Amino acid sequence: MNNITPRYIAQQIIRLVEAGDQSRDSQLTERDVLPLIKQTSSRLLRDEIYRLRQDPEGERTIPSQFIKTFRKIPVKKRTFDGVNYIDLPGDYAGLPNNEGVRRIAPETSNPYQNKAMIPVQHEQMDIYEGILGSMQKQWVYFVEGDKAIFYKRCGVTLCESGIKYVTSSLVHVSANVDDDMPLSLPSELQIDVIKSVLDVLQVTYGFSEVKDMLNDNNADAA
What are phi and psi of 50, to 5 degrees? Predict the structure, then answer.
C-alpha cells in the first residue's frame, strides 16, 4: 500500500493522453478523469478482495490494509418498536455472509464492556438472537443494507444499558475520497486503474493510440 491519490493518477492519465503536461487547450481535464478513477478503483478493490477471500490456495483472509475501523458511531432507536440500530459509516465489500462487516463492539470507558458482538445472518435472527444473547451475555446483530440492527442481551437493549456508541470495522472498498487523499489501492493495481480509465476515455474522446502508448512504455520498462 502506498500514498497514491486520485489526482496523481489523473495527472498520469492526462499526460499519457496529451503526450505531455496538460495545456490550456486540452480536451481532457482532471474533472473529467477523477470520477472515473474513483469508480474504477472501487470496482477493482472489490474484485481483489473477493478473489483473496475465495482463493483455494491462499489463507482466505482479508489483508488488514482493506479493513477500516470507525469509532463513535451513535446507537439509534427505532420509534415504532424500540429496536436499536446504527447506520454503517461507509461502503463495505459485498462478501458472502456479510463478511464485509468484520466487527462491531460497544464503545465505552469500560474495556470489559467493549467486546465484539455476535453476528448472525438475517434469516437466523429470530432463531438465535435470544439464545446467543443470553448464553454469551453479549449483544447480537445482523446487517441489513446500510444498517446493523441489534437485539437485546438478557432482555436489555444497548440504549437501556447506557451504551451510546459503538465501533465498527469494515472491509472498506470505497474510493470516494478527496482528490488528494490516498486510495486504499495496492500499487500493483494502479496500472489496471489507468488501463480501465483509458478504455472509457478512448470510447468517449476517441484517443485511439493511448493504450498502445501505455503498453509500449510498460514493455520498455520491463
Answer: -65, -40
